[in-house]
Specification:
With 147 residues, this protein is of the alpha/beta class. The chain has five helices and five strands. Strands 3-2-1-4-5 form a five-stranded parallel beta sheet. The chain is globular, with a radius of gyration of 15 Å.
Length: 147
Amino acid sequence: MGGVSRREFSLVGQTGAEAILAAFQRARDTCRDYPAWLDFGCGCGRIARFLALSPSIRDLSGVDVDTALLDWTRRHIPGRFETMSPVPPLVFEAEAFDVVYAASIFTHYTEEEQRVWLAELLRILKPGGLLVATTLSPSQAEQFGSL
């Protein structure tokens, strides 16, 4: 874990899950349920392990390119966790999910790759579904652009 303690690692996952749930609560339609969720870029389930505890999330899935991390996730977190290709499409049917969340994933893609993946995530979202994603602020993006 690169010098990060288990406690710190877990706290980042818990804090991320809380932030995703808070954003979801602000954006959701209170007249509908959102039982099917996808963690896009789930890795070892750092966030998914906490979201799996939410009684309103009845169908949790995740995808990642790292098969070793996914092997661990499959053994320790309830849900469906699949290996994804670096390019779309994902293995899921159209309109399969009520919520897709992507924490610290889009920063790994070029602008064109982001557009391609956004189109794919929209394909697998149900009508009225929600995408919750983190991105860089303009000032952070400028810092990375100067590297």
